[in-house]
Amino acid sequence: MNYKVYNNDCVIGMQELQRETVDAIITDPPYNITRDNNFKSMGRAGIDFGEWDKEFNLVSWIPISIDKVKKGGNVIIFTDWKSTTPIIEELEKNNCEVKDMIRVEKSNPMPRNRDRRFITDYEIAIWAVKKGAKWTFNRQLETYERPLIKTKVTPKSEKIEKGHPTQKNIETMEWLIERLTNERDVVLDPFMGSGTTGVACNNLNRRFIGYELDRNYYSMAKSRLLIV
Ligand SMILES: C[S@@+](CC[C@H](N)C(=O)[O-])C[C@H]1O[C@@H](n2cnc3c(N)ncnc32)[C@H](O)[C@@H]1O
C-alpha cells in the first residue's frame, strides 16, 4: 500500500504514527490570509478561501510533525511571506536547521489592482532539515541549482470540478519531491487539501501519508489518488 490518507485533524491523527519513521514533510498549511476585498469581478475568487483559513494556529502542529521525521529528513512548509518568522522559530525550537527559502514563480499570475499594488507572481516555501544525519539532495542540473521553481497557476485539467481554492500544481510538488526525497521514501503532508503532494508522490514512486480535515477536499484527494 503506497498511500494512507485520513479525513482527520492532523494533530490528532499523527499521534498514531511512530516516531522518526517519515522521510520528509512536504506541506501547504493554511496561511491565515483570508481577507475581504473588492476584486471578485476580476475573475478572482476574492481572498476568502474558507473557514479553514481563519484563525489557524501557524505553529501548533509543528512539534508533533517533526517528531515523526527521521534525522536528516527534509521539511518543506509553504507559507505567506509575513508568517515566515514564527514558523522558522518553531522549526529551530524543534531540532531543525533552516536551509533556504524556495521561490515558486508563476508566469501567469492572477489579476490585481494594478494602480495600487504589485502583482503577486510568487509563493515561497521554507526548507529545513531535522538535525542529526545527512539530508537528501538530488541535484538535477550539471551546474548549481537555484531555489526557484518556474511554473504556472494550477491548470483546470488538474482540478476536480472547481478544485481546491488554493490547489498547488503537480509540477511544483514534483520539483520538490525529485530533489529532496528518494524513490520509495515516505512523504507526509498533514494538510493535503485535494492531495496534490500525494499525486506527485504517486507519479515519482514515493509513499505518502496525508491528513485533511474537510470531508469534500478529502474526497477530492481520494479520487485523485484513485482510492476507492
Ligand atoms: C492550503 S490548503 C492545502 C491545499 C493543497 N496543497 C492542495 O494542493 O490541494 C490547507 C488545507 O488544510 C486543511 N486543514 C486545516 N486544518 C487542518 C487540520 N488541523 N488537520 C488537517 N487538515 C487541516 C484545510 O481544510 C485545507 O484544505
Give a short overview:
This protein is an alpha/beta fold and about 230 residues long.
Please tag this protein with its features:
globular, binds S-adenosylmethionine, 6 helices, alpha/beta, 228 residues, 21% helix, 8 strands, eight-stranded mixed beta sheet, Rossmann fold
Tell me the structural class: alpha/beta
Largest sheet: 8 strands, mixed
Give every kind of bound small molecule, once each: S-adenosylmethionine
Hey, roughly how much beta strand do the residues contain?
15-25%
Please give a structural write-up.
This protein is α/β, with parallel strands linked by helices and 228 residues long. The protein has one domain: Vaccinia Virus protein VP39 (Rossmann fold). The chain is 21% helix and 24% strand. The protein contains six helices and eight strands, in the order E-H-E-H-E-H-E-E-E-H-E-H-E-H. The protein has helices spanning 10-13, 62-67, 84-93, 170-180, 196-203, 215-224, and strands at residues 3-6, 22-27, 69-79, 96-106, 122-130, 148-151, 186-189, 207-211. An eight-stranded mixed β-sheet has the order 1-8-7-2-3-5-4-6. The longest helix is centred in the last third of the chain and has 11 residues, at 170-180. The structure holds S-adenosylmethionine. S-adenosylmethionine binds next to helix 1.
